[in-house]
Design goal:
By secondary structure, the chain is an alpha/beta fold. The protein is about 55% helix and about 10% strand. The protein has 11 helices and 5 strands, in the order H-E-H-H-E-H-H-E-H-H-E-H-E-H-H-H. A 5-stranded parallel beta sheet has the order 2-1-3-4-5, with helices on both faces. Strand 4, helix 8 and strand 5 form a beta-alpha-beta unit. The longest helix is centred in the N-terminal third of the chain and has 48 residues. The protein is globular, with a radius of gyration of 27 Å. The N and C termini lie far apart (about 90 Å). The N terminus is likely disordered.
């Protein structure tokens, strides 16, 4: 009987020892996992701190072909690290973005180097009266809020491109009935927004106009006559990166476009920006 009790005691001691060992292993495992998570977070913060932070606010003209990613990849070939965050919604206007809690949270809680603002494709191409009422006030609100929390940030107004044959929707306003007329109105509105807010303008629309003149065979628009084809997004990316970089460059990042075409688009983009820095209000 005594031997039986001793065996029970030995079993209890053994179980207690096993539980203690398991407890020690689990405790150490938690420490290891926590340390790994901290290392990953620290590494991410270090990588982010080493990058220029860019916030994109716009709609499908920005997210088609992932324009931010193209800019980021072009920048990487020049040794420039960009960290991208986007607030994008199809067809959205700046007025809608202004009422988006996520955008306000990002503006308040994070510090930005660049904020790229892109309005709905038609509004800035309508009459000055419409643009002054429905576009300019919301551009100013977003721009102003950005500079409250990121006073050293540069806002970049992404001058969009006209629809292929002028406004795809019929309106009573006839100064957007053709490509050139619509582009002229878009350019005026974006340049005025940049001037009024002490910000920069990225002349994507002007670059498109020049490429259409030099190479009408290049397909910059998709068949819907509104959205950018890959060549159009690539052209826009080079314009926006040149606006940030403010110097000429060569890149082998072509997004799979023919090398000769990519080279033309790069050169037109850079010339359009670098030859118009004053008009575009681009100053370091």
């Amino acid at each position: 009987m005594q031997g039986c009790n001793m065996k029970k005691a030995d079993k209890l001691t053994s179980r207690a020892r096993e539980k203690r060992i398991i407890h020690i292993i689990m405790r150490n495992l938690k420490k290891i996992i926590l340390a790994a998570m901290l290392c990953l977070a620290t590494g991410a913060r270090a990588a982010d701190a080493d990058s220029l932070r860019v916030l994109w606010v716009g709609n499908s003209l920005t997210y088609f072909n992932d324009l931010p990613a193209i800019v980021q990849d072009i920048a990487a070939t020049q040794g420039v690290k960009l960290s991208m965050t986007s607030v994008l919604k199809g067809g959205e206007q700046l007025s809608g973005h202004w009422n988006n809690p996520r955008l306000k949270k990002l503006l308040k809680e994070q510090r930005w180097d660049y904020i790229v603002l892109q309005e709905q494709s038609q509004l800035p191409g309508l009459s000055t009266e419409v643009a002054a009422r429905e576009v300019y006030p919301f551009a100013h609100k977003i721009d102003s809020m950005a500079h409250v929390y990121s006073p050293d940030a540069h806002t970049i107004y992404y001058m969009t491109f006209a629809h292929k044959y002028g406004n795809v929707d019929e309106t009573d306003y006839n100064l957007d009935d053709t490509y050139d007329l619509m582009q002229m109105r878009l350019a005026t509105s974006y340049l005025e927004m940049a001037q009024q807010n002490g910000s920069w303008c990225a002349p994507v629309g002007w670059a498109w106009q020049e490429v259409r003149r030099q190479h009408p065979e290049y397909q910059l628009h998709l068949p819907d006559c509104l959205h950018p084809a890959l060549a159009g997004s690539y052209l826009a990316a080079n314009v926006i990166f040149t606006t940030i970089h403010q110097r000429r460059y060569q890149t082998e990042e072509t997004r799979g476009l023919p090398a000769e075409q990519a080279e033309v688009l790069q050169q037109v983009a850079q010339q359009t920006v670098m030859q118009n820095l004053g008009t575009l209000n681009i100053r370091k």
